[in-house]
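Recap from last week: sequence in, structure out.
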Amino acid sequence: MARGHQKIQSQAKTAEEQAKIKKQQGHSDQDQKKAAQKALLHVCAICMSQMPDPRTYKQHFENKHPKSPLPEELKSI
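Predicted structure tokens:
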């Protein structure tokens, strides 16, 4: 019976150590979400969708808002 309890304790300790190592590496979900959010620079004036680059923004605008006039920042693209 003692061996089973030791096994559970050992597994818990190992899992705790692995979590610490992973946290130190900086690959947490929050870090990834923050990095992805920084990449979304352009915001649609109508629906407030976020896009990473002007080309994607222009495609989005032409497809989703065809009746609206094209914003000035997209006319040069």
